[in-house]
Structure formats: structure tokens, C-alpha cells
């Protein structure tokens, strides 16, 4: 009674770590179908999978923006069965909206949001029929809180969260589970790709204040945020494994305790001003407040890490 796990976006980062971590489960509780858009990029996964390849891990092609490829992949599984779907494929986009084309924005929505919708159109009916299944979505802390110059990316993750919150009510009727995994910054290709794209942005369409804010405030602090708050993809995979083995998995799970002080601000003020004003201060009085905030968060993290370790060893 091995559970079938289908994961999207496994050629790098969190998806790769998830596939390997779950396939290497000592009790062999899972059969992992690690999927990727482009099979020619399978080498790092093949290497990391080691002896699990062909045993508890198989690699398949799946492009979340292509319905036919999703159907072909699901059709190729024994009885088309997926017990746990991990929707991970995604892309980032940073910068002022004046400098982004609608096409670029649409491809973020198409991958991050409609990617999940397409997967579920194919997989949900079978899960409902079997009255069994767990849908796990790699969202982000930006699924609950917007961040400067991540307008479109945050919107795509908010879309995911609204969609899942609505669907979760229906899913209860069928005994299905939905879980949103919300990592803070994770050190992957994603971070580098997004930063490199950010450097290439033609800022001539933005006014001087905006362009300056992007280059000298946002990009300048970008690396520091990842260095201070960044988690490894393996860490996110470990959290996700804990969620998929639970009998009653939570609807939301934040993986980065360093980040919880920020997301808590949202729930602390029903008017919604507190997180916006706090981020504003962090960004614009950054030399003092930003560093002080990061240090404060580091301290909190050190304390909560101790409690997470205790929790795990219990
Ligand atoms: P990544 O760029 O290493 O991985 C994203 C993967 O998705 C890549 O392998 C890419 O090829 C794949 N992908 C993109 N479009 C696809 C498509 N149409 N079909 C199939 N696969 C496609 O970055 P990552 O950090 O591992 O990102 C994985 C997920 O984690 C994303 O949903 C991202 O939004 C989320 N996330 C990342 C961070 C972070 O800081 N890195 C933080 C929170 C959430």
C-alpha cells in the first residue's frame, strides 16, 4: 500500500529536493513520479535520486501549461492513481509593472495559478471518486502577504490561496485534504534567475523615484534577505514530508520560522495597515531599521529553531 506521489517542476530546487527526499523514505511508503517540463534537464535529479531511480522514483514529462502533457502523464500511471499531488512548478517575476509586459505577467499567472487548475481538472475527479487524496500546493509567504516589487508574483500566489481555500470546503465533503506549503525565501535557482532577470529590466519606462527604489533599495537588499532568512530546499522538503504523513494535515503550513513575525503582522491588524507600514519602514529606513529587524528576526529564529528541534525529537 505504497502511496503514489506526483510532483511537478522536479528538474531543480524545491521540486528536486522533494522528489529525492520522499523517494528516499526509509519505510518506502511512497512511489514518486517526479515530473518536469523538459526531460533533457533530468541529469541533476538522476544523480541525486541514486538508487531510488526505477525503484521508488520514476521521472516523467509534464508541462503544467500544457493540458495534453498532463493527461498523457496521468494516463501513464497505473490505474491513473495519484494519492498525493504536489504542485510545485512555478516562476518568479520582480520589478515595477511599468517595465513588465502583460505577456510576461500572464505567463506567471499561467504557470503559478492555472498550472494547478489544469492539474486538478485532470486529477480531482479521480480523487473524488476514490474519496481519497491529498493536494499539496507549494505556495509562498507571498500567498498571504505582498512584498515590494513582487506585485504579479504575489498576485499569482494569492490566486492559488483563494482557489484552494474555496476548493477545500468542497474537498471536505469527499474526505480529501488540501495543504498550502508557504516557504519564505529559499536558496534555489529561482532566487538567482529572478535576480538576474531583475538586473536586465529596462527601467527607462519607470519614473526616477521608482527606478531608484527598485535598484538601490530592492535589488540592493535582495541578496541580504536570502542570506539572512534563506532556507534550503531540503528543509522545505523535510517540512512537506511531515505534512504528507499526517492523518489530519493542516490547511496552511509556513516552513520558515524566521519569517513568522512578518506574517503575524497581517493577523494582528484587521485594518491591514500594520504589515504595510512595517514593510515601508523596513525598506526606507533600511540602513537602521532593516538591519535591526533582520537581527531581531535572527534572534527569534534561533529560539524557535530550538523548539522545532524539540518538537521533532518528541
Ligand atoms: P526553481 O526555479 O528551481 O524551480 C521551479 C521549477 O518549476 C523549475 O524546475 C522549472 O523548470 C519548473 N517549471 C516552470 N514552469 C514549468 C512548467 N510550465 N511546467 C513544469 N515545470 C515548470 O525554483 P524553486 O524555488 O524550487 O521553486 C519551486 C516552487 O517554490 C515555486 O512554485 C515557487 O514559487 C515556490 N517558492 C519558492 C521560493 C524561493 O524563494 N525560491 C519561496 C517560496 C515559494
UniProtKB/TrEMBL annotation:
<keyword id="KW-0521">NADP</keyword>
<dbReference type="GO" id="GO:0052650">
    <property type="term" value="F:all-trans-retinol dehydrogenase (NADP+) activity"/>
</dbReference>
<dbReference type="InterPro" id="IPR011348">
    <property type="entry name" value="17beta_DH"/>
</dbReference>
<dbReference type="InterPro" id="IPR002347">
    <property type="entry name" value="SDR_fam"/>
</dbReference>
<feature type="binding site">
    <location>
        <position position="140"/>
    </location>
    <ligand>
        <name>substrate</name>
    </ligand>
</feature>
<dbReference type="InterPro" id="IPR036291">
    <property type="entry name" value="NAD(P)-bd_dom_sf"/>
</dbReference>
<dbReference type="GO" id="GO:0016020">
    <property type="term" value="C:membrane"/>
</dbReference>
<dbReference type="GO" id="GO:0005829">
    <property type="term" value="C:cytosol"/>
</dbReference>
<dbReference type="Pfam" id="PF00106">
    <property type="entry name" value="adh_short"/>
</dbReference>
<dbReference type="InterPro" id="IPR057326">
    <property type="entry name" value="KR_dom"/>
</dbReference>
<dbReference type="GO" id="GO:0006703">
    <property type="term" value="P:estrogen biosynthetic process"/>
</dbReference>
<feature type="binding site">
    <location>
        <position position="157"/>
    </location>
    <ligand>
        <name>NADP(+)</name>
    </ligand>
</feature>
<feature type="binding site">
    <location>
        <begin position="9"/>
        <end position="37"/>
    </location>
    <ligand>
        <name>NADP(+)</name>
    </ligand>
</feature>
<protein>
    <recommendedName>
        <fullName>Retinol dehydrogenase</fullName>
        <ecNumber>1.1.1.300</ecNumber>
    </recommendedName>
</protein>
<keyword id="KW-0716">Sensory transduction</keyword>
<dbReference type="InterPro" id="IPR020904">
    <property type="entry name" value="Sc_DH/Rdtase_CS"/>
</dbReference>
<feature type="domain" description="Ketoreductase">
    <location>
        <begin position="3"/>
        <end position="184"/>
    </location>
</feature>
<comment type="function">
    <text>Retinol dehydrogenase with a clear preference for NADP. Converts all-trans-retinal to all-trans-retinol. May play a role in the regeneration of visual pigment at high light intensity.</text>
</comment>
<keyword id="KW-0443">Lipid metabolism</keyword>
<feature type="active site" description="Proton acceptor">
    <location>
        <position position="153"/>
    </location>
</feature>
<keyword id="KW-0560">Oxidoreductase</keyword>
<keyword id="KW-0472">Membrane</keyword>
<comment type="similarity">
    <text>Belongs to the short-chain dehydrogenases/reductases (SDR) family.</text>
</comment>
<feature type="binding site">
    <location>
        <position position="63"/>
    </location>
    <ligand>
        <name>NADP(+)</name>
    </ligand>
</feature>
<dbReference type="GO" id="GO:0004303">
    <property type="term" value="F:estradiol 17-beta-dehydrogenase [NAD(P)+] activity"/>
</dbReference>
Amino acid at each position: 500500500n505504497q502511496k503514489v506521489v506526483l510532483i511537478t517542476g522536479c528538474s531543480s530546487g524545491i521540486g528536486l529536493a522533494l522528489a529525492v527526499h520522499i523517494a528516499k523514505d526509509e519505510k518506502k511508503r511512497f512511489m514518486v513520479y517526479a515530473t518536469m517540463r523538459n526531460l533533457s534537464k533530468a541529469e541533476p535529479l538522476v544523480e541525486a535520486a541514486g538508487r531510488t531511480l526505477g525503484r521508488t522514483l520514476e521521472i516523467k514529462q509534464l508541462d503544467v501549461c500544457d493540458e495534453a502533457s498532463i493527461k498523457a502523464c496521468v494516463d501513464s500511471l497505473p490505474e491513473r492513481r495519484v494519492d498525493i499531488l504536489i504542485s510545485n512548478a512555478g516562476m518568479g517575476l520582480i520589478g515595477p509593472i511599468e517595465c513588465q509586459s502583460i505577456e510576461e505577467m500572464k505567463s506567471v499567472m499561467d504557470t503559478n495559478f492555472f498550472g494547478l487548475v489544469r492539474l486538478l481538472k485532470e486529477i480531482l475527479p479521480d480523487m473524488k471518486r476514490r474519496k481519497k487524496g491529498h493536494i499539496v500546493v507549494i505556495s509562498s509567504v507571498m500567498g498571504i502577504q505582498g512584498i515590494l516589487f513582487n506585485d504579479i508574483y504575489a498576485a499569482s500566489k494569492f490566486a492559488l490561496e483563494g482557489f484552494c481555500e474555496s476548493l477545500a470546503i468542497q474537498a471536505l465533503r469527499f474526505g480529501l485534504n488540501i495543504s498550502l506549503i508557504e516557504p519564505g525565501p529559499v536558496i534555489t535557482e529561482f532566487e538567482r534567475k529572478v535576480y538576474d532577470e531583475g538586473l536586465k529590466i529596462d527601467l527607462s519606462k519607470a519614473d526616477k523615484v521608482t527606478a531608484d527604489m527598485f535598484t538601490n533599495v530592492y535589488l540592493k537588499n535582495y541578496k541580504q534577505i536570502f542570506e539572512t532568512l534563506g532556507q534550503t530546499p531540503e528543509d522545505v522538503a523535510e517540512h512537506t514530508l511531515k505534512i504528507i504523513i499526517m492523518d489530519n494535515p493542516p490547511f496552511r503550513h509556513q516552513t520558515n520560522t524566521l519569517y513568522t513575525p512578518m506574517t503575524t503582522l497581517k493577523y494582528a491588524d484587521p485594518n491591514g495597515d500594520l504589515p504595510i507600514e512595517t514593510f515601508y519602514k523596513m525598506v526606507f529606513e533600511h540602513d537602521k531599521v532593516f538591519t535591526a529587524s533582520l537581527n531581531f528576526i535572527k534572534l527569534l529564529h534561533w529560539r524557535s529553531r530550538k523548539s522545532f528541534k524539540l518538537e521533532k525529537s518528541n
